[in-house]
Amino acid sequence: MPTDTKRVRGPEVSQSPVLFGCRPAAVLPSHGPRADGRQRDQADVRPVFVRCGLVSQANGSAYMEAGSTKLMCCVYGPRETERKDETDMKCGRLTTDMRLAPFSCPVRGSWIQGTQDKDLSLMLYESLQPAVCLQKYPRSQIEVSVMVLENSGSVLAHAVTCASLALADAGIEMYDLVLGCSLCQDAGSYVVDPTYAEETSCGSGGGLTVAFLPSLNQISGLQSDGEMSEETLTAGVRTCIEGCYKLYPVIQQALIQALRRAAPPPSES
Amino acid sequence: MRSSVMVEEPVLLLLPFSSDWPIRIDSSPCLSQWEVGSALLENMSPMKLCVPGDKLCSEEDCIPGTGVYLRHGYIYSALAGYVLKKNEGEKRPVISVVRETEAQLLPDVGAIVTCKVTSINPRFAKVQILYVGSTPLKDRFRGTIRKEDVRATEKDKVEIYKSFRPGDIVLAKVISLGDIQSNYLLTTAENELGVVVAHSEAGAQMIPISWCEMQCPCTQAKEFRKVARVQPEYLQA
Amino acid sequence: MATVQVSEAEKVYILHGIRDDLRVDGRGCEDYRHMEIETDVVSNTDGSAKVTLGHTAVLVGIKAEIGKPRPMVPNEGYLEFFVDCSANATPEFEGRGGEELGTELSNTLYRVFNNKHSLDLRSLCISPGEHCWVLYVDVLLLQCDGNLYDAMSVAIKAALFNTKIPRVNISSDDEGGKEIELSDDPFDCMRLDVENVPCIVTLCKVGHRHVVDATLQEKACSVASLLISVTHKGAVTCARKVGGGSLDPESVFEMTEAGKRVGKALHAPLMALLRQEESLGMKRHKVGFLG
Hints:
Chain A has helices at residues 115-128, 155-169, 196-201, 230-262; strands at residues 48-52, 60-66, 69-80, 93-100, 140-150, 179-186, 189-192, 206-213, 218-228. Chain A is of the alpha+beta class. In chain A, helix 1 (115-128) crosses helix 2. In chain C, strand 13 (225-230) and strand 14 form a beta hairpin. The model of chain C has no long low-confidence stretch (mean pLDDT 88).
């Protein structure tokens, strides 16, 4: 292709202006109340809004908002497995797909599933799988897909909750609901259900996400990074469990509401 | 002090592998059971609603039905739905959880399914399963009727093209979920099973005249089929 | 993942053994299998190590290249992880079969090293905002016999210990441009401080107890496992639940505690061994891949 040599061409790669603008403001104080008025060092989760059945074509779906984190989840199936192997004959297969919309974060992402999305999908899979009665669905697969519309922190934790709600809405048999909660640890104090700014600004500490089955009292998913002592980790897991219990009545209510809206009670026969 | 434990232990250890409770959940004893506010649920509706994981009752009070599971002697809900207690003359009522829409039904061994023939060859007919009992399936499930499963007698004389044609609606029974290579295996080797709706070459819906023949009302041509003697309970108005 | 079939009777046998702290191969619940480490096994790399743990064999090669620092952290170099599950390990990995496991493993590695203390990334910076060293850590799975994570992390630590990054001089010319000059002397090189590099300990919950360094048979009996990466000081840099089951919170706490204990104990002998091997210098008898 002939090029115009007189023209000053731009650089080959470009960076988002967000990277250079207002950097110092992103560093949040590591003490005192949080930006949104919640308390530190407490299982103070953001109020959530959940609704079932927003996608009519899916077997089950759920929409969830926590602060300005917004995500939706659809469940399709059980349907015939495409790829088969020996274990599918006795047990169903659960597939998960979690994506962050390109516009969900301050910096634009790509539509192609990156390693981050794959990692999130895997974590979602591992958190949900213990709760689903897969042996009731031999030879078939259940597809769970989560789309994060706006990432304002704790995406994975809320994705787990939202997905379990969608599974319940689809009428998939489950041992229990799965609830997710995350926290950010930073030099002696922690913040539960961190926002995106809190997530990115906690430098020396680490993050922790727990998926929990409240009725069976089981941890189905656990993931942490950053540096923590064993005691902090243990305390963090306990706090996350506490956060999950706070979420539990809300999720129960949402499901019951969805049920009641969908149909009147069946006649007793 | 605890000699009996030594005897019991193997049983305890085997339990996690029994088929109804899969190995996937940690078998440690539950330290704290989260009691669901069932009183709260009852207040809101004359019929109790529940979500997965809700403890419904003790095993001694009810017999577990569908949509529930058993754990540590208690019955828990596996679905989000209405709790239904049915007394069927037994001592204890059967407890199950039902939803307004039909449960996500899958073809199971022994189930009577309605299917449509998609292709035939000398060895088997491929079908698409449309209904399980009277419940329509939402997704596509494929099945196979092998030559030897078409009828119960004179299996060696069966010819697939004299039994089914693509497009026929067939009543069949699931005999196996099949293995990796095959689909659901179906059989029509009963009088009540076989072709229920078929169209002739002229395109008209044919009328059964014997267990192995159907006739076209337009051209009077006879075609071979494995005809089902449809039972009245399967006939719908 | 290479899988094995375990019968009900075998499962009960393994479970009973673990209950009595005696595993099928004679180990206790918190013992590792025999581990062999050799560094400097591939001459084309800047640092390499091969670790065999039981029949699991992992080869790690580290290549240092000059790259551009990430805009968010202009004064730091960075690490890139890639895990290749070759078809050598098991035929299931042929083609794209090993890809899923490979991404899972490399994502975990990013997570393990996602903190400020594991490795001093500032020492990898050449000139802030312009040039830095990028360490490409390539992990090759040669054989799978359970416990890939632990073997992999030990191999990475050994390979990082072995890594020699050539020294560079930055000289500015008249026009203000910078020139990077590599040292000619092959012995004039920079070494990395690997003291804080964590090791991964995978604990498998089998029955009511948990075991370290599970074999494939033991893994088949396990409900779920917890992997935690621990530094020599006992700080946890990553924890993850893997496998298809769920765990009781109490057993998670027990496993974290055990993992920290085992991980801490792993570092001292490992570092001693690496130093000892290093001190042998050129005289060292190389074992290679057939040893």
